[in-house]
Input
Amino acid sequence: MEIHGPASALTHDELVALYELMVLGRTLETRLLNAYRSGRLDGAIYPGVGQEAAMVGFGSALEAGDVLGGTHRDLVMQLARGVTVEEALLNFSGKVEGPSRGRDGNSHFGVLGKGTLMVVSPVPDAFPVAMGCALAFKQRGVDRVALANCGEGATSTGSWHETMNMAAVLELPIVFVVQNNQFAHSTPRDRQMAIEQVSDRAAGYGIPGFTVDGNDVVACYNAGREAIERARAGGGPTLIEAMTFRSFGHDGNDDAGYVGDDVRAAWGDRDPIERFETRLIDLGVLDDMRVIQVAEEVSRRIQDAMDWVADQPDPKPGAVGDDVFAPTPAPAAETSGDPTGGPMTMLDAISATLAEEMGRDERVFVLGTDTASLGGAFHVTAGLEERFGPQRVIDTPIAGAGIVGAAVGAALMGQRPIAELQHADMIYGGLDQLVNEAAKYH
Output
């Protein structure tokens, strides 16, 4: 059984590494689920057991410097991006050295230094932020790509549609992956959408879209790699739907009684780890002895990590308020222009400040509806596009969550975005991104 496509370039050791990562992810999540159900884990668990092929395939298709924006079921994909078992367990155990500094006890974390964006409860909140990262990459002309991943249920949200549309219009280097695991918690696909496949929605945004076997790690790697390279070459976004199945419920409290026995049996016959294991054995890359060895090594590695984490310090209750508020920066010591000049309207003052800061710092840019060609609803940005160009004064679709989330992502990548929402009451469309993303990143 040969391996075709981009995966054919992987060495035998790299193929085995994909297998080992799938086994590691399943073993870790199963241990966490068992710990939760036995009362030994105080946080929460959203197991992705059964979806390892998609998690590892797409996660491994990214390169160093690329960014992943995922959801609460993407723990294995975080491992594929270089997050360690120890970092994950520190967070699940609420330890002070964990990614969320003891403020959480589950998969709601990211390790920005390794290119994984923070996970929060509302889905798919990381989509607009990942889009902002891609926007920053395009502005700076760097060879980097963002990948945003969610489940099929999240595609019903406004933030998903805003992100898809805005990324397509701006032709950003981003890949959208939807792991269709058949149920959004307990709600089946036909109660989420009136179409057969999520990938059919791509046509509405004018981007390529297709469906792959989400239980085939090679198919996922190949699809991800091709879409990522297309985005890296300036081809814009792609939507990939991966058909898969979660073996357990939505979370540790969910017995998944809404799944029929026939459905579970059919997907059990397509188990992603067993399929890949058989494929590697047929290729002569793996044998029964190595399979046993991998299982033993993974089990020992996780147990050692759990033992180590148990001895790590807990956060001190008195420190709960630390880092909640950002420090107020001191005002600039120097100003340009004549401070004794004549009176100026507030709008003129804002416009002058924007021009001054954009001239001083090339990272500063403005994005929002009608900011470029019209110069803004109140003409605050008038003339800035002519002076600084369309990459720094960006007309966007009407998208509160998209605009604010894109600003968050661009800022995380080192840019200095200024998001314009034309009227004060338009902030509510972007409030989720402001509260659940911008604030929590600090």
